[in-house]
Amino acid sequence: MSTTQELTTGAGKARQTPTGHRSLRHTQGNAPRRTLSNRIAMSLLTAAMVVAVIPLVLILFKVASEGLSVISFDFFTTDEPTYRTQEAGYRAGFVGTAFIMAGAIAMAIPLGLATAIYLVEYGRGRLASVIRFFTDVMTGIPSIFVGLFVYGLLISSAAVFRMGFSAFAGSLAIAIIMLPIVTRSSEEMLKLVPDEWRNASYALGASKSRTVLTTVLPAAAPGLATGSMLAVARGVGETAPLILTVLGSQYLVTSYFSDPQGAVPLQVHSGAAQPFAAGIERAWGGALSLFLIVLVLVVAARWLGAKANKLK
Amino acid sequence: MPATLDKQPSDPPPADPGQLSRKRKRVADPAFRWFVTITGTSVFIILAAMIVRTTTEAWPVFQHQGFFDFLTGDRWVSGHSRSGNAEDFTGVYGAWPFIYGTLITAVIAILIALPLALAIAFYINQLAPKRLKNPLSYTVEMLAAVPSIVFGMWGLFWLVPNVLRPFFEWLESWAGGFFLFKGPVFGPSYLAAGIVLAIMILPIITAIVREVIAVNPVDQQHAAYALGATRFEVMRKVILPSSFSGIVGASMLGLGRAIGETIAVMMLIGSQRGWDSSLLQRGDSMAALIAAQFKEASPETVRALMAIGVALFIFTMVINVAARLLVWRIGRVAGDAAV
């Protein structure tokens, strides 16, 4: 009894100096040095965290302070004939981005979802893991290369299906960039659906396809929406592939399969490259609106995702 | 929860499926299965189409220039032939200055981002108060969502004139004799592009390193604490060694991202066709050259840009496959910054 008592009090004492090295002969040992190095390392980690947060704050502040004054009703309803024009806006870009993103969403989300269903519900063995691996690898393909590919496929003089610069070409490029993101996040979400639910559905006599369509997909819906929104957030800010596929336009274009189309990131890019104050100001406005779109999508996706996780 | 589970046991049992629906089931089920299997393989079709299409477009350039010469030549003169036959080509295409620009900016980015990402990952996983963990990781992942054009504008109009240019001038006056920091100072340069790239690839490296160190067994850490180790010692001697391959994988993924980044680099690297050993000089990267030259390019030059794209693709592919293989062991990394 008394020995246990001693041991516990001994442990209690050691606890008071959790970093201290205790030896029978050296009450101090190298403890001061180790405590010091620990303290230095910990403060370095904290400092690194602070340093990492700074850029986001600075970007947010700069874009907001330059862009807010530009954004008005006219910014969304007028075109930009020249970079020097004082009263002008990015209507062409917003309409073009909406066209491009609508097409990209229509292509990437069904395809990515179907791939995810295959991976989670049907995929066994080597084929599934190879698909999984290359989906992961595909997330790292440079977006400019995707643009080059679509250019070679649809636009260049030696193109396979020649149709020229168009919103469709841009949609295809953005869809290819979004596809692996949709696949991966949908796969994670489908995996979260408990197997009991599937078994319950089978027990009611439902076939596998019916189980997937009426039990698994609705159960995973909020999570699937989260992943898709993050993919859209990624796609909407892409600039490089659009240079090679939609080319850009200063005036409103309403055709989808022909004619070069505008896009907000393209207008921001060309506006920022010109030495005219009015154009640069508008570029900030465009950058701010892109940033806000992405921010809203990401925050909404997080909110939905948190709700979906709570359900589980 | 979906309505299917809310059914009370008193609900009537499902009606007999009947002959018709059973027949349909026999067709519908395999059809659905085949449909998702084929869409699953679409990733291979897309990848194969990408490789074939761009390589055939670029082939005449490799024929005209020779693959090795293309990679090592340092002169780039656009030609103006229109036919697409290698015999008619008039330009000289050496991609070395752009390969150098790509590599040096990516290396700068990794050198800055990796230590920072390691520190952040350790801070969030091990040190941060519980309530701060999620907000902090969201903040870092938010950086991944910022469009690269916004990074480019911020870098060009704020960071370079206000922070980097004074810093470069100081660097040049202090270490200008050293070949890496030789003047004159422009704003846009390899170093400026590399620094902004570092901010851009920080989230992906952080996300993966966090996953990697999270799988380190807690028992092991507790054992080390029980032996009297300090927090720093646990991180350095317990977590770090077992996470080493994952961290290498994470930095390679970051490297792949940095190599493929286009718009921000294009705005910050200075667009100079040539290369210089000094980090303060202007240059060009492969991706930035493609985007910058494309609009004014003749048909022949577009093919040369395709060739650069193919080389870029090969680089990123090799790096990505190796990195994913290294990270693969710990399982797939979730989180949107990682994709």
What is the ordering of alpha helices and beta strands of chain A? Answer: HHHHHHHHHHHH
Secondary-structure element series of chain B: HHHEEHHHHHHHHHH
- As residue ranges, the low-confidence spans of chain B are 1-13
Estimated radius of gyration of chain B? 26 Å
Query: So what's the oligomer here?
Result: heterodimer
Rough outline of chain B: globular
Task: Give the end-to-end Cα distance of chain B, rounded to a whole number of Å.
Answer: 29 Å
Q: How would you characterize the largest beta sheet of chain B?
A: 2 strands, antiparallel
| Number of DSSP E strands of chain B | 2
Enumerate the strands of the largest sheet of chain B in spatial order, edge to edge or round the barrel: 1-2
Beta-strand content estimate of chain A: under 5%
In a nutshell, what does this entry contain?
The complex is a heterodimer of chains A (312) and B (339). With 312 residues, chain A is mainly alpha-helical.
List keywords for this structure.
heterodimer, A: about 300 residues, mainly alpha, 12 helices, about 75% helix, globular, disordered N terminus, B: about 350 residues, two-stranded antiparallel ribbon, 13 helices, 2 strands
Task: Walk me through this protein's architecture.
- The complex is a heterodimer of chains A (312) and B (339).
- Chain A is mainly α and 312 residues long.
- Chain A has helices at residues 2-16, 31-67, 73-77, 91-122, 125-138, 143-155, 167-192, 195-203, 208-236, 240-245, 264-273, 277-311.
- Chain A is 74% helix and 0% strand.
- The model of chain A is unreliable at 1-17 (pLDDT under 50).
- With 339 residues, chain B is mainly α.
- Helices cover 70% and strands 1% of the residues of chain B.
- Chain B contains 13 helices and two strands; from the N terminus they run αααββαααααααααα.
- In chain B, helix 6 packs across helix 7.
- At the A-B interface, helix 2, helix 4, helix 5, helix 6 and helix 7 of A face helix 1, helix 2, helix 4, helix 5 and helix 6 of B.
